Amino acid sequence: MTDKHEQATSRDKIFDAILRAAPTVVADLNTIQAEAAAILTESPNARPELLAEDAAEALMRRVEKGLVIGTSCESIPSLDQLPETVKGFLEQYALPAELKVQDKPSLQSLEWVDIDTDVDIHNDNTVGLCFAEYGVAETGSFVVHSNETMPVLLNFLPLYLIAVVPKSKILHYMDDYAAIANEIAAQGTTPRNMCLISGASGTTDIEGVLVQGAHGPEVLHLVIVEDQ
Amino acid sequence: MHANKPENFEQNVSEALSQPNLKAVIRRTTDKAEAKRAEAIANFPGFENARIQGQKVKDHTIKYMAHYLAEFEKNAKAQGAIIHWASNAEEASRKVLEICRKHEAKRITRSKSMLGEEIGLSHALDNADIDRVETDLAEHIIQLAGDPPSHIVWPAMHRSREDVIKLFRENHKDPTYSEEIIELVRSARRDLRTKFLTADIGISGSNFLLADSGSTCTVTNEGNAELTTTPPKVHIVTAGIEKLVPSMAHAVPLLRLLTRSATGGEITQYITFHNGPKRQGDVDGPEEYHIVLVDNGRTKMLSEGMEEMLRCIRCGACMNHCVVYKHIGGHAYGSVYPGPMGSVLTPHLNSLKVANKQTHACTLNGRCEEVCPVKIPLPKLLRSLRAKSWEKKYEPLTNRFFVKGFAFIAKHPALFQLFSSCGVIFMRMFSKKGWIRSMPMTSGWTRNRDLIEPGTQTFMQQYKKMKKAQK
């Protein structure tokens, strides 16, 4: 078993060595924080340009230009249209009418007529449907946070994944998401996992050839809901 | 395949150069990465500014490392993480094994982590009779083949499709009989899926340690990290202390640099921040979450003038652009970290005595520094290691004799001109049709290529003649 004494000495040894090393400096908290903040003021000149001024528009253009691996997107006026959209998706890929819907009241309460929503996502042939917390235009990402209704695995087990992204929650840059994460942390409600997902699962490990659906989804479809 | 040793570098190199297909196999990956990186950067005019910002983030964190490390520890603990400290590789592996034993783990899944390789975790787990499942596709391939990794981003780049077909047919429960790459990937997906869901412990690395929130961060294209860290009861993170950054906002510029420099993509498909164990009411996630923070030579680098190397974000751009790496491949270096970054890291993780020859295998053409996303002056660091190796007398006596002899001659112009004019005559005696196929004392060069015939006169002879003509 781990020796308490050894544990203490390894930690002390590391801190001692760092503090003894010439390049490291001890300073008061304000100095350190001011320096750290100054570095971030450079971000506006050190990030890529977006494809449109409006964040939702920029995200959609990115996806449409094929810059987000294995991903398509569409926009619907309100959440009521979602079952119809999902049906269209299932037909497009000739999939059975089966769907694992995230256990979130706003999704569960929709009229899932003719679609079996009681399925096992461990089976690769199913489609997952999740509700994203945020979208990020810079990277074509959607963001999920683990919580009581959001299993992390819902985003990784199915071969097809549909992510609902509320239009009002689409951010311009990753920096904007980092600012939000900071606010969440300040409230002490940081979730176990925050996942930024930017495309379908892919690998180039065999002879450099890109194959989608390495471990996670092969196909990703973003549905932007305008009134959300 | 046996793992090469760093001290046998010269022998490893001649073995690599004698493999007929190796160069083509390496270039298939590195040339593509090089072209895609160039394209990604052409599409991002602010890239140079991002490099400057990225360097500043790392330098700032290194400058206040003790502060940020203490912050990280405090905040990760507040999230419910159990923190362990390890001074060296052996201690780090042992800490991980202790957690595995405590939970009587029979099967562990692992998502690719160079630090895990560095601390010898694979061997430690194998020796403890724990079923180790590598989940990154490339790591899965080299685990089946019994190979060490040959690149930090594409560890299985030395394996062909034919090799993979054979390995999967022999090892997968429900293998494919197709030779299509997509079917091979599906075969691995089927084989690994049940293992993901039945592992007792998941082990990951961390690309960043966020000091202000205590988060660790995994970055993958396959999504294997989340499948590794979510289903098991226990998640263990192993991370080098140089992975620290002040906050998520500070990790963002580095994320912009990392993917573009590594694969030429703009962003990896999956970036996940991990904070403590599952929260009350969470549908999935581990019940216990450990972070093993590893020094293993990093504080030594800090105190020995090598702090710039601690900026490294492990993108692999330096090896993709290295003329030496592209000829000899990753295995010849005899280390987890090959190429330019490896030649600087290995002497500190191992010792300069065993890994000094790698520091000489560099043309100092400066490509690695030009493409490094955080502007690490790799040629400068390699030269300082050469100087140190000379001071410590690690060079073989014959080398030392010749270098000293050369230095003496070079300091005496008359002697230098005499030797060089004799040299020209001597070399021309061995040349045929403009090329020298072999001559005494040059076998190191002529074994694998010809030497070009020198002109009839030395530089100084030509220079004097020109001066005379001008008068």
Largest β-sheet summary of chain B: 6 strands, parallel
**Proportion of beta-strand residues of chain A:** 15-25%
Oligomer state of the chains in this structure? heterodimer
In CATH, what is the homologous superfamily of the largest domain in chain A? NagB/RpiA/CoA transferase-like
How far the N terminus sits from the C terminus of chain A, by CA atoms, comes to 53 Å
CATH class of the domain at 47-299 in chain B: Alpha Beta
Write out the strand line-up for the largest beta sheet of chain A, numbering strands in chain order: 1-11-6-3-2
Which structural class should the secondary elements of chain B be placed in?
alpha/beta
CATH topology grouping of the domain at 47-299 in chain B:
Rossmann fold
Q: Could you estimate the helical fraction of the residues of chain B in percent?
A: 40-55%
Shape label of chain A: globular
How many separate domains make up the residues of chain A? 2
Key features?
heterodimer; A: 228 residues; alpha/beta; Rossmann fold; 2 domains; 5-stranded parallel sheet; 4-stranded mixed sheet; 6 helices; 11 strands; globular; B: 471 residues; 6-stranded parallel sheet; 23 helices; 52% helix
Describe this structure in words.
Chain A is of the alpha/beta class. Chain A has 2 domains: 4-44, no CATH class; 49-225, Rossmann fold (3-Layer(aba) Sandwich). Chain A is 29% helix and 20% strand. Chain A contains 6 helices and 11 strands. Chain A has helices at residues 4-20, 29-40, 55-64, 82-92, 105-108, 174-186, and strands at residues 71-76, 100-101, 127-131, 134-136, 141-145, 160-166, 170-171, 193-197, 202-203, 211-212, 219-225. In chain A, helix 5 links the parallel strand 2 (100-101) and strand 3. With 471 residues, chain B is α/β, with parallel strands linked by helices. Among the domains of chain B are: 47-299, Rossmann fold; 398-470, no CATH class. Chain B has 23 helices and 13 strands. Chain B has helices spanning 9-17, 22-42, 47-63, 65-78, 89-102, 114-118, 121-127, 137-145, 161-171, 181-198, 224-229, 248-262, 298-303, 317-320, 323-328, 339-349, 357-360, 367-371, 378-391, 397-410, 413-429, 443-446, 459-470, and strands spanning 82-86, 107-110, 131-134, 201-204, 208-210, 215-220, 234-240, 244-245, 270-274, 288-294, 431-432, 435-436, 451-452. In chain B, strands 1-10-7-4-2-3 form a 6-stranded parallel β-sheet, sandwiched between helices. In chain B, strand 11 and strand 12 form a beta hairpin. In chain B, helix 3 packs across helix 12, helix 9 crosses helix 10 and helix 16 packs across helix 19. The longest helix of chain B has 21 residues, at 22-42. The radius of gyration of chain B is 25 Å and the shape is globular. The model of chain B has no long low-confidence stretch (mean pLDDT 95). Chains A and B meet through helix 1, helix 2, helix 6, strand 8 and strand 9 of A and helix 2, helix 3, helix 4, strand 1 and helix 5 of B.
